[in-house]
Amino acid sequence: MWPLLLACVTDPPEKPTTDAVLDSALDSALDSAGDSDCPPQDWFEDQDQDGWGAAEGLITACAPPSGYVGRSGDCDDGAASVFPGALDVSDGVDQDCDGSIDESGAELVFDPGAGTHPWLGLGAHVWIWDDLWPTVLTAIHGTFIRTSLYSLAGPDTAPAGGSDADFDAWLLIHDTAHDEAVMTVATAQAAGLSVIALVWEAPPAWETAGALRAEHVTDQARLTAAILARLAEAGAAPEFVELLNEPDGDWNSYASPSVYASLLRETRAALDARGLTHIQILGPGLAFAQSTEDWTAHIDPADLGGLSTHLWDDAYGAGDGVELVIDAAARFASASDRLDPSRRLPRIITEIGSKDTALHGVPTNGADTCGDFPDATEYAVRLFAYTLITAAEGAGAVLPWQAADLNWGGCWGTWGLVDMNGVPRPALETLAQLGAALPEGAAVVPPRWQDPELAAAGFVRGDRFVLALANPTAADVTRTIGIAGSSAWRLNGETSTTTDALLIRDALDSGAGFSVDGSVWIDTANTAYFDGDAGRLAANDDAVVTWTFDAEVRQISAQLWVWSGVGGAVWEASVDGLSWSPITPVAYTPTSATWAQHTLRFETLPAGTRAVRMAFESRSVAWTPQLGQLDVTLAPGAPSTEDLLSAERLLVVTVPAESTRVIELGR
């Protein structure tokens, strides 16, 4: 509650003119300088706070007034993404103020300063009879579980029309899984997880043809509140509850949009009446996210604590699952925005999975039938891709179906991240890669536009920015990714699920990744003469340059710019960075020109090589040889991103077919 301030109001003072404001700012700046001898200089007003001012907003003073900076040239001081040196992306705007438009060639653009919503984390559906789920949630760095926290014997004997006390007394006899439910919640919350309770269905006696009848909405609300109240008494109150599993289908209990809205309203009132105001309701939790607006059109957002949906790609297709999820996620986001335009409510995908019946034209397993799709790498990539797609559309948390297999319903029990023996499936390892990389408390940064082949989302907190990419197609995908905004970022590292050897291209251009003994510098002044290379090393003494890698080096190629012959440098390799062995190129491509590019290739390296160094020998010409591009092929899982951040604010990233990549940037 804001304090109430009372004051006598007289005629308002005349609004100062712009000149008066500038004069006041100038006087303040001069006063702050006191009687010192500091020379006055020009300061420029920076309205959009991007670090660059507009030339017309000039003040001359010893110290900068508030909101002023020492450099001008901003061609649009009302747009923080427009300033000299910004990334000029394909949107018809001259971002870098150089008079040209869209010259960067970026195919995907992220602005780490433009996070849209909090990332709440990963989770999974778990069963209260399963003892494997804590290991699974730990592996993926999970923050949520979703589970049904009761099991009713004789549900049709529930006291329709009864009081709260009647339902409480009935549950004491008919809830056969109360102890397991309490243990599940206690275990989860002790581990710092949030719990989403699920009420699967209404008693069949309250339904007609699988649909909850309107006259039993109050009964179902009181039953739900009684279940949660009993858990709360045991110190096991969940944070959230979903009402009915997939109310758009009659496989549990169907609830029409109007009946669901009534159930939501009645359940909120029943919980509040019991003092359970802290338990929030998620909804509508439909099976088909593309139908969300049909339900949310009837909902009062005041009754909701969060928006939820399920996302499976089995709607009608064989091989078009990714397209279905992209469409469904966008429709869920659109309906959510209309209901909750301020994004006050978290958006949680409480089930996500894939039952696509074909991949790239090759049949997998029939929808809803037994098969080995969840054991495949392709399934793992699908879960990863769908997580990124939904995050970019506004989801704050994503929960795959399911943590561990449970033999309860034939094939429906076999979509676990681990099987019934606890053996991990590829999806567990792939999601663990994402969960481990994302900073706690991060904000989601969607790409400026979607990519039809590559699922992508960014996550930022403070000085860490993580790019997550997934390629669910049958071909490798290479993209030029632009990093917008006013901050300078560097490539810190990356992980991948690809099984192929990867390549680091021209790590020199980033100005990082190597150590130097002696006098070495990077010449960036004459890139036009050297095929655009922005990171040529040069030396004028017996310097040694060393590169150390996090994976085994399989092959090296080096481009040298020389005046007359390649001599004057030796190459060595090391397993431990202490003992060094000379290496000799197996291929050498000279050119006859006096000042030209030469290429060396080293293929025979000691097993386990993790460090390489180049030693400059004494020479009569200080600038011969210069080292240009260095290409290093590493063992699987190592970085493969061309780092042009320092030179062009770009990354050139290849994501092989059916693989994922997580790239971390820092500043």
Description:
This protein folds into three domains: 20-84, no CATH class; 120-433, Glycosidases (TIM Barrel); 503-635, Sandwich (Jelly Rolls), CATH 2.60.120. The two termini are 39 Å apart. The longest helix has 19 residues, at 321-339. A hairpin with a 6-residue loop joins strand 29 and strand 30 (581-582). The strands form nine sheets. The protein has an eight-stranded parallel barrel, surrounded by four helices. A six-stranded antiparallel beta sheet has the order 5-18-19-20-37-22. Helices cover 21% and strands 27% of the residues. It is an alpha+beta fold. It has eleven helices and 37 strands.
Helix content bin: 10-25%
Q: The CATH topology of the largest domain is what? A: TIM Barrel
Strand runs, count:
37
Question: What best-fitting shape do the alpha-carbon axes yield?
Answer: elongated
> Strand order, biggest sheet?
6-7-8-11-12-13-14-17
What would you say the CATH architecture of the largest domain is? Alpha-Beta Barrel
Name of the CATH first level of the largest domain: Alpha Beta
Summarize the main sheet. Answer: 8 strands, parallel, barrel
| Estimated radius of gyration | 31 Å
Poorly predicted tracts of residues: 1-35
Please tell me the total number of domains. Answer: 3
